[in-house]
Amino acid sequence: MVKLPLKLKAKLLERKEESFIRNLTAPLDLVDFTSNDYLGFAGDRTIFSKSFQLLKKMGAASNGATGSRLLSGNHKLYAELEETLVKFHEVSSALVFSSGYDANVGFFSSIPQRGDFVFYDELIHASIRDGIKMGNAKSYKFKHNNLEDLKSKCNFKRPQSINEPQIYVVTESVFSMDGDSPDLKRFSEFCIQNGFNLVIDEAHAIGVFGEMGKGKVDELGLQKEIFARIITFGKALGCHGAAVLGSSELKDYLVNFARSFIYTTALSPHSVATIMEAYNHLESSKGADARQRLTKNIAYFKDMVHMKGLNSLFIPSHSAIQCCILPGNHQVKSVAKKIQDTGFDVRPIFSPTVPKGKERLRFCLHSFNTRKEIKKCLEILSHNLRGNG
After folding, report:
1. Which CATH superfamily does the domain covering 285-385 fall into?
2. Which of 75, 140, 159, 262 could be stapled to 164 by a disulfide with Cβ–Cβ 3.0 to 4.6 Å?
3. Aminotransferase class I/classII large domain location, by residue (predicted)?
């Protein structure tokens, strides 16, 4: 076997010395405070069973898609799913991708053109950054959730012709590493006033916010004011894949120019059937109950943080993602290990995934977590932060 080049070995060694070496480990058999399965859909037996029933009903009993959607992989379940997404999210069209990463890379590498400008929140997801890097537009970041900083950097007039640059403003409705949200109404008003294109990643809002879990955009009534929304199915919906929501022309463009769509094997019929049944479950009384339990757990967690005097350590958030800042990779790793040793799966987030000095414990809350679990977990955190661990 050919050995790894020395320069690559050196980079691995540097990671180890910084306590930031990534390893693949088996799932921990602990109380879940780390997964994105906010509503418990990933292990829901009803969704699992109904997915197979739908496959039989549609005559789509196939193990794989057999090719990309532009070749042999565009099985009939895709049309059903995309029509479901159009109705549920109140948009003109929806285009399903094989993953959230594929959706963001495909969108941002193909939509902004040479001469255009992309302004993105400094904490935007890595997949969006990668897509922007692959494209030909110039890009600039603005301070996190800071509309005034965006305004100071985005001094362009409303485009009047095909030759003038298009401006794309990119943010998330719920940020994956902070759990906070921008003032989407003010961002939307600014973009409308200036003729800019607002793009919002709703990965961590779908299923959690809005009527029936339609997301933050729906909750604020901004559906018709957004150029594009990227939604994913691997978080609250408990399955896999993603979609770009927007106009019919946007869908046509992506089908023709988004390379991560064109050259990727399509999702299997089973994957698509699971997404469809997850949406059916989301609209059912069981889905409503799960969302209600999650909302109550978020409120209870925040109340307990306040009671334990930990407010100053936590990033303000009304989402299922609650983060406790513990600077330093060694410190956050040590505290996480102590919490895990008591039976709770809470993961540390190291730099450079987050900025140096902003290392944190990331608590992901779920509909299935109990108040007893939440209280006990925060008691253990408080105990260890006081140096008694």
Report:
1. Aspartate Aminotransferase, domain 1 (3.90.1150.10)
2. 159
3. 29-379
